[in-house]
């Protein structure tokens, strides 16, 4: 009985850490997308140069391919604010 209670407490603490870690990754993807978008706007588009280079799309593709659909919200919010 005591062992199952201890296992239950460990599982709950691991779930909380996992949720916190997930939010940190979501925020990281959104922040990187935002920073890459701002950099492109500042260095390429403001100087009158036309370019098809958009590093944020590469980051978005890599995040979704490696992490799955759970990173789509981070990509979405990064895109909206860039």
Task: Write a brief caption for the model.
The chain is mostly helical and 82 residues long. 79% of the residues lie in helices and 0% in strands.
Structure description:
The chain is mainly alpha-helical and 82 residues long. It has one domain (19-81). Helix content is 79%, strand content 0%. It has helices at residues 2-43, 55-67, 72-81. Helix 1 runs antiparallel to helix 2 and helix 1 (2-43) packs parallel to helix 3 (72-81). It is elongated, with a radius of gyration of 19 Å. The protein starts with a helix and ends with a helix.
Helices and strands in order, then pairings?
Blueprint: H1 2-43, H2 55-67, H3 72-81
Transmembrane segments: 23-40, 52-72
Keywords: Membrane, Transmembrane, Transmembrane helix
Give the helices and strands as they follow along the chain. HHH
- Average pLDDT, all residues: 79
Provide the helix percentage.
Answer: over 70%
- Enumerate the spans where pLDDT stays under 50 for 5 or more consecutive residues: none
Radius of gyration from the CA trace? 19 Å
Which structural class do you get from the secondary structure elements?
A: mainly alpha
Number of helices: 3
**Anisotropy-based shape:** elongated
Count the E strands. 0
For the record, give the distance between the C-alpha atoms at the N and C termini, rounded to a whole number: 53 Å
In percent terms, what proportion of residues is strand? under 5%
């Amino acid at each position: 009985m005591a062992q199952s209670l201890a296992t239950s407490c460990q599982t709950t603490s691991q779930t909380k850490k996992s949720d916190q870690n997930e939010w940190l990754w979501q925020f990281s993807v959104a922040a990187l997308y935002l920073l890459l978008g701002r950099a492109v706007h500042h260095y390429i588009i403001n100087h009158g140069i036309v370019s098809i280079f958009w590093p944020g799309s590469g980051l978005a593709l890599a995040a979704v391919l490696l992490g799955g659909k759970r990173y789509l919200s981070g990509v979405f919010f990064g895109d909206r604010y860039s």
